[in-house]
Amino acid sequence: GGKDRRSGLILTIPLCLEQTSMDELSVTLDYLLSIPSEKCKARGFTVIVDGRKSQWNVVKTVVLMLQNVVPAEVSLVCVVKPDEFWDKKVTHFCFWKEKDRLGFEVILVSANKLTRYIEPCQLTEDFGGTLTYDHMDWLNKRLVFEKFTKESTSLLDELALINNGSDKGTQQEKERSIDLNFLPSVDPETVLQTGHELLSELQQRRFNGSDGGVSWSPMDDELLAQPQVMKLLDSLREQYTRYQEVCRQRSKRTQLEEIQQKVMQVVNWLEGPGSEQLRTQWGIGDSIRASQALQQKHEEIESQHSEWFAVYVELNQQIAALLNAGDEEDLVELKALQQQLSDVCYRQASQLEFRQNLLQAALEFHSVAQDLSQQLDGLLGMLCVDVAPADGASIQQTLKLLEEKLKSVDLGLQGLREKGQSLLDQISNQASWAYGKDVTIENKENVDHIQGVMEDMQLRKQRCEDMVDVRRLKMLQMVQLFKCEEDAAQAVEWLSELLDALLKTHIRLGDDAQETKVLLEKHRKFVDVAQSTYDYGRQLLQATVVLCQSLRCTSRSSGDTLPRLNRVWKQFTITSEERVHRLETAVAFHSSAEKILQECPEQPEAFNEMEQFDEIEAVGKSLLDRLTVPVVYPDGSEQYFGSPSDMASAAEHIREKMKLVSLKKQQLRQPEAATPES
Q: How far apart are CA 217 and CA 210, in angstroms?
């Protein structure tokens, strides 16, 4: 890469300790000397033989070999010697004496003195210079250059043959020539890319001298690298552009023929087998399964059509691309093909879509009809099962469920009518693409089937409505029945509570006659309330009997509630009578006792008969005895009024009044006893 002071190129020959093959060295020198231009060679070479690691006889052989390989081009040979090693041997062979015979000057020089003959900026670091040089990098770039040169030259020959063959002869000869040499042996794009990369690399490689001189590259103009690459690239681009045009014309002709052939294939199939498939499909099925089978068959037909539609899309894109290319000679033919293909495909696609929509509508119609039929079956099954609810709430819930089912059936029938009418409208438009085929018979069968399904569902719904009306009346009566039974049971509970209150709270007998009479009056009103409750329960139970007869069912009231009502009422009556008897006895006792206790002792004539005192005592004792006796019911059970402490309190009050009466009696007897003594 360096230059000597005469602007001649510097050739460095590094020698090593191993044996150096002179033949290989000769071939290498021949190759290196073939790279520079003749102008560059005319300025001569400076050869540096680096013998620092070699033997003297090898160095001498190399120098003598330069005489045979490049005698005219070599102007100076600098042999770099080891320090103080060859001095004795130099005397046996002085190169400077052989200058005339060798044809060039040979000097022995140490590495540190080489700068006397060559500028340091033109020497590499091995010789104390500053020139940057990477031999492997240079070698790799040179190999790339050699490869590019070889491939581009071969490719240019092939492209020229192909292009020239397409410009001569008849059309038939053109096609035959193009067919024979249509594909080059290497990819032109790859070769061009390699060339551009190489040229870019060459243009970027610059080396500056240490003194700031003009920059230069070892593979620049003087080494013919860049001019050769640029020239080859220009030639390649020109031939490749012509080749691309040849290929484009050939591809366009081939593509147009293929498009014409494929268009006719698509049109012939769609107007032939495709249309025939649709002509045979007219039914809508009489059930979901039948409609699904027809849909599956239609999907198979659509699948076959989809393959051809995919071809149509591809062809349409190809035609559009050719139309955009703007070749006048093909525009009319391409537009005609495109229009014919589009008309046939759109017509067939519309027919497929119409058929698919019709089958989908039929499937929806049959689905709604099946759902409605199942709803009617469920409603009918519910109506056919006898109602045996446990209480009025369950009846209300069942009645609500019945109403909801009936409402759902109404909505289902309305939806069926809408789906059916929509399907009938589509069937009425079916003849518009029948290709002249009379579809009246097929349409009539479909229409009759749809109308028959809707009429059948309407009749079934009407029958269910009539049964629902009967069931609704029956269930409302059952609600009334359970209500009467519940109220009657409540009356029994109320009566039981009244009986319990009578036994536990109606205990007092009064402290005097007036209070006892008030208690007796309250008791009669209490009995009136119980009587009303009993009468209300009886009326409810009578109503249940009437409802049971109407419903033809056996009520629990006749065997349970009525006996309970009568039993509780009987117990209440017995208890009430006992309460009345005690109160009346208490009134008689208090009235007699108060009368005696209130009369003045100055009227002894009022007490002529002592039997009154005896009678009061007898009533009091009877009342006390009554308080200790329980109420005995017909079933043998017994109940006491209040607690024992309550009865003891009432009895204690009576005993106190009896003591007052007894004391009064004694006071009246004392005057009678004193009178005879006086």
A: 15
Spell 209-243 as b/e; 16+ CB within 10 A means b: beeeeeebbbbbebbbbbeebeebbebbeebbebb
Distance CA 206, CA 218 (A): 9
Please give the torsion angle defined by the CA atoms of residues 659, 660, 664 and 669, in that order, rounded to the nearest 10 degrees.
10
Bridge partners (DSSP) of residue 631 are 639
Q: Cβ neighbours of residue 64 under 8 Å, at least 6 residues apart?
A: 102
In whole angstroms, give the CA distance from residue 363 to residue 480: 47
Cα(457)–Cα(334) distance, rounded to whole angstroms?
Answer: 58
Query: Rounded to the nearest 10 degrees, what angle do helices 644-677 and 561-598 cross at?
Result: 30
**Burial level of 545, CB count in 10 A (0-12/13-18/19+)?**
middle
Q: What is the pLDDT of residue 557?
A: 47
Question: What is the distance of C-alpha 105 from the center of its chain?
Answer: 91
Phi, psi of 45 (to 5 degrees): -120, 150
Question: Once rounded to an integer, what is the mean pLDDT over residues 32-59?
Answer: 81
Rg (CA), the chain: 68
- Residue 524 CA to chain centroid, in angstroms? 79
Tokens of 149: 């040169």
Tell me the β-bridge partners of 591.
none
Chain centre distance of CA 576: 79
- Condensed to tens digits (0 to 9), the pLDDT of residues 465-521 reads 888 888 778 777 777 777 887 888 888 899 889 988 888 888 888 888 888 889 889
b/e per residue 283-292 (b: at least 16 CB within 10 A): bbbbebeebb
β pairing state of 9-14 and 45-50: parallel
- Helix axis angle, 328-384 relative to 392-428, nearest 10°? 150
In the predicted model, what is the mean pLDDT of residues 379-402? 75
595-621 b/e with 16+ CB inside 10 Å = b? ebeeeeeeeeeebeeeebbeebbebbe
pLDDT-based confidence at residue 414 (cuts at 50, 70, 90): very high
Separation between Cα atoms, residue 458 and residue 419, nearest integer Å = 14
Q: What is the pLDDT of residue 93?
A: 52
Quickly state the pLDDT bin for 220 (edges 50, 70, 90).
Answer: very low
What single string gives the DSSP state of each residue in 101-162?
Answer: HHSSEEEEE-GGGGGGTS-GGGSBGGGT--B---HHHHHHHHHHHHHHHHHHHHHHHHHHHH
Do 404 and 466 contact (CB within 8 A), yes or no?
no
Number of helical H runs and strand E runs in the chain: 18, 6
Rounded Cα distance, 560 and 63, in Å: 145
What's the pLDDT tens digit per position in 582-598? Answer: 888 888 888 888 888 77
Phi and psi at residue 77, to the nearest 5°: -120, 120
